[in-house]
C-alpha cells in the first residue's frame, strides 16, 4: 500500500489534447451503450482506445469508468433482474472472471479477440435466422450444466480480454430472460458483480495504479452522464427497437474484435 501511495500520478502522460478527447469520447460512447443495454461499455472503449493507450492501459481504464456507470445502473438492476436466470450464471461467471483476470496479467490476448469475434458473429447470425429459436425447443435453458459452462467461458473471456463477456452471453440470456427490462437488469447486476471482482483481483496484483485511478476520476462525470442518457433512451424505446439495436451492437462489436485481432496478428 505504501508503494502504491508513493507512486507518481501523471494522468494521460504524453498524450495530445485530441488524443485525450478521443479517449473521453470513447468512454462516453461506451457508457451510453451500458446505460441503454446494461452491458457493453468495455468493448467499444477497449477497441478504440487501445490504439492510443495500448491494450493493458485501455482495459484497466475501461474498468474505472465501468465502475462509475454501475453506480447509476446497479439500483435499477437490483430492482428488475430476473434472479432465476442470474443466480445459476453467477458462480461460473465469477470463477471465470477471477481466472481470466489472473491470466490477463501474464498473457497477450491477441488470438482471443479473433476467436471471440468469430464466435459472436456466428451466435448473432444464428439468432437472426432463428436457428437458436429452433434449438432452444430441445434444450433446457436453465440447465445447471449449460448455464455453468456458458458463464464460466464468458467470465474467462472477459477476464482475459477486458471485454466480451456479455457479448458472448446475451443471446442466450435473451431467450432465457425474454422481457427486455428484466434482461437489462440481469446483465447490469451480473456485470457489476464481475467488474467489482475483477477490480479486486487487479488491485491485489498491483495492476491498478494511482495514475489509472486519477484518469478514471477525470472521466467519471462523462461516464455518469452518458450512462444516465443511455438509461433514458432505454426507457423511451420500444421493445422492437431495443432488440434491433442489440443485434446491431453485437455484430458491430464482433466485427471490431475481428478487425482488431487481424491488425494485431498481421
Q: State the low-pLDDT regions, or none.
A: none
Strand content: under 5%
Question: How many distinct beta strands?
Answer: 0
Structural domain count: 1
Q: Rg from C-alpha positions?
A: 18 Å
Biggest beta-sheet profile: none
Count the DSSP helices: 12
What best-fitting shape do the alpha-carbon axes yield?
globular
Binned, the helix content reads: over 70%
From the N-terminal CA to the C-terminal CA, the straight-line distance is: 40 Å
Structural class: mainly alpha
The SSE order reads HHHHHHHHHHHH
Mean pLDDT across all amino acids: 80
Describe the protein's topology.
Blueprint: H1 2-6, H2 17-37, H3 42-53, H4 55-80, H5 83-104, H6 110-128, H7 131-136, H8 144-161, H9 165-176, H10 180-204, H11 210-236, H12 239-265
Helix pairs in contact: 2-3, 2-4, 2-11, 3-4, 4-10, 4-11, 5-8, 5-10, 6-12, 8-9, 9-10
Keywords, please?
single chain; 266 residues; mainly alpha; 0% strand
Could you explain how this protein is built, in words?
The chain is an all-alpha fold and 266 residues long. The protein has one domain (2-265). The chain has helices at residues 2-6, 17-37, 42-53, 55-80, 83-104, 110-128, 131-136, 144-161, 165-176, 180-204, 210-236, 239-265. α9 (165-176) packs antiparallel against α10. The relative contact order is 0.21. The mean pLDDT is 80.
